[in-house]
Amino acid sequence: MVTPTVKNMEKIKNSSALLTNPSHSGTPKLEIKDVGKIFRTKSGETTALEKTSFTINEGEFVTILGPSGCGKSTVLRIVAGLEEATSGQVLLDGKEIHGPGPDRGMVFQSYTLYPWLTVKENITFGLKLNGVSQKERDDMARHYLQLIGLEGFEKHYPIQLSGGMKQRVAIARALANNPKILLMDEPFGALDAQTRNIMQEVLLKAWDESKKTILFITHDVEESIFLADSVYVMTARPGRLKKKVPIALERPRDFSVKGSVEFAHYKEELLSLIRDESLKAIQ
């Protein structure tokens, strides 16, 4: 096991300053205020999410990490307007969210492309609905095809693409609509390990350029560290925020950072936090 040096340990320790002095300053982009969720059925009630509060600043990349069934996807669906909170409120740019809206882009784990549309048509579908001109749509499609590395595939249909390529198109489509925040619900969960690693780098490349605010759900510890400015760890159900872990790894990042001493330290800390909660979930 890699042993952190005194210098590296001090650097990581100092990253705690991000809790009170975030690098992404200014008015919070997204505010989760005492949000709770109870699912009611004929057989009774299940508390999926206890009162949870946190904020995400403009341009920040936040991952939510937790054991299965902890309510992390419930948080995302409430932010997306696909679920209604039992208590609390969600504010985007200071305005309370009520239902879905084009100001929030969503990328799911399943491939949600329109099978009858080409790659280019999928990317520009929302733009066309909003009356954007053909030239602007063409320019936008060209830009995002280059960004996600799918130049030459614009006339292909989803059935002709691999899983990783489909998710690239889904990300490009979400970004092309220029949402205020991008919500991602374990988008790489169904991919093989190698493709998943590549997709993480593709996403960071897109984020480095767009600087979109991103809320990303995952159960993968390495993924959460590699992508995020901050990792929010949730408890076992009923879910609530257990700890915020700021990630002070330098940007831009590539795959090599996963072999660093700093990365190993974060991984050890998060694995310990998640293991405790996973054991509670099983029990």
TrEMBL record:
One of its GO terms (molecular function) is ATP binding. The keyword Nucleotide-binding applies. It is an enzyme of class 7 (translocase). It catalyses: a quaternary ammonium(out) + ATP + H2O = a quaternary ammonium(in) + ADP + phosphate + H(+). Its EC number is 7.6.2.9. Residues 30-261 form the ABC transporter domain. Transmembrane segments: none annotated. The complex is composed of two ATP-binding proteins (OpuCA), two transmembrane proteins (OpuCB and OpuCD) and a solute-binding protein (OpuCC). PANTHER family: ALIPHATIC SULFONATES IMPORT ATP-BINDING PROTEIN SSUB, TAURINE IMPORT ATP-BINDING PROTEIN-RELATED. This is Carnitine transport ATP-binding protein OpuCA. It comes from Neobacillus bataviensis LMG 21833.
